[in-house]
Amino acid sequence: MRDLAAGMRYLVRGQRWVAGHGRWWGFGMIPALIALVLYGAALTVLALFAGDLAAWATPFADGWGAPWQGLLRGLFTALLVAGGLLLSVLTFTAVTLLIGDPFYESLSERVEESEGHCPSAPDRSLWREIWIALRDSVHVLLRAAPFGIALFVLGFLPFVGQTVVPAVGFCVSGFFLAVELTSVAMQRRDIPVRERLRLLGGRKALAVGFGTPVVLLFLIPFAAVFLMPGAVAGATLLVRDLALGESDPGAADGPGAEVPVGAGVPPVAGASAAGGGFGPPPAPFTPGPGA
Known about the structure:
Blueprint: H1 2-19, H2 22-57, H3 68-99, H4 101-114, H5 126-154, H6 164-181, H7 183-188, H8 193-201, H9 204-218, H10 223-247
Transmembrane segments: 24-51, 71-100, 140-161, 167-186, 206-228
Subcellular location: Membrane
Membrane topology: Multi-pass membrane protein
């Protein structure tokens, strides 16, 4: 439960950071707005043709009488639209990050600089960075796909499919959304995608606590545009503490140090004369076994 609460606090801290830096908030909304227009058009088309897709996918029900044909195809249509919404939430971040790679890289760097230290990014061209981000996003999507398919099938179960399955689906989406949101700060540290999954997989409650509220909030119309910059800022703060704890758990001990993940206590301003009063620079990341 502490990790769940800690994940939520990182999201709140990120939103507070952008609220205090209005220029960066507006700067970070530009790619989210572009992605929202694209996704809005795609979901509108899906909603308009979901009934036809349901009829095409259930030809065996053509001879069924009322109300069974309507119930089956209505359920299929609802699941299709719900699946489209969940897929859009899961991929919205990846697409927005791809569109706005320079925007969010600059935003994430500014967050780290305000916290006292920003690791040097690998010496790569912009197109190389975009290619790596696209490749990593596809990898994460492929890892998430089996969960999505299983939950879609389980959605047909009476009662469980309308109660337990959606709740589990939001948590699964939240975890993978956290993986996507942390990719900006992780990529700056040159942490490969498999290692990112291992790091967050070892703290699933933390990732779910951070990502699931974002999933739920992104379902509110236009909320994603306003919340995306703060979500990237919060993910950056999460990565700073997560990478620090992974590379040197003892580095967070003592006065003036960064707060370990899950502690839930914001750093105290003025704790260090250097770096803006937010503790020492994060220790270099050391890949774990199997990286």
